[in-house]
């Protein structure tokens, strides 16, 4: 039987709808969960209830990126102050070692930015400025 190795997680590409391809140093969280529904009839033989999947919930996804002069994510987040924020599909593609072949992908459908965390600054530090944006979505679809 051939050995099947898991995918490496450090080569990926993110496309944020009309904003295009963007670079992120880290993508975290993101989950899919179902609220269980418990049901039991009076004549059911077991004393425990039947459990079924209920409403699906999609956890927020956090994207971390090095601070640059680009304000695209900031402007997208703040567009909600002056108008309705535009929902965008965010596509995350896990890439092979050649940085071109797509091993698998996830699409965050109808995503909106809900939080921007600014970088910490220190006059004695030696790190890059990194911000993060939290994205909420209506569905996570694996390609």
From TrEMBL:
<dbReference type="InterPro" id="IPR010667">
    <property type="entry name" value="Phage_T4_Gp19"/>
</dbReference>
<dbReference type="InterPro" id="IPR011747">
    <property type="entry name" value="CHP02241"/>
</dbReference>
<dbReference type="Pfam" id="PF06841">
    <property type="entry name" value="Phage_T4_gp19"/>
</dbReference>
<protein>
    <recommendedName>
        <fullName>Phage tail protein</fullName>
    </recommendedName>
</protein>
<dbReference type="GO" id="GO:0005198">
    <property type="term" value="F:structural molecule activity"/>
</dbReference>
């Amino acid at each position: 039987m051939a050995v099947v190795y898991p995918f490496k997680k450090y080569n990926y590409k993110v496309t944020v709808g009309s904003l295009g391809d963007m670079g992120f140093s880290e993508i975290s969280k993101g989950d899919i969960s179902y609220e269980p529904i418990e049901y039991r009839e009076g004549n059911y033989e077991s004393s425990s209830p039947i459990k079924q999947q209920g409403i699906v919930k999609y956890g927020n996804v956090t994207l971390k990126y090095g601070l640059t002069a680009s304000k695209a994510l900031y402007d997208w987040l703040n567009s909600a102050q002056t108008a309705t924020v535009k929902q965008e599909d965010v596509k995350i593609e896990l890439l092979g070692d050649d940085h071109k072949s797509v091993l698998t992908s996830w699409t965050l459908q109808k995503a909106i930015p809900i939080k921007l965390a600014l970088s910490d600054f220190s006059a004695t530090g030696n790190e890059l400025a990194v911000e993060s944006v939290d994205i909420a979505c209506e569905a996570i679809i694996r390609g």
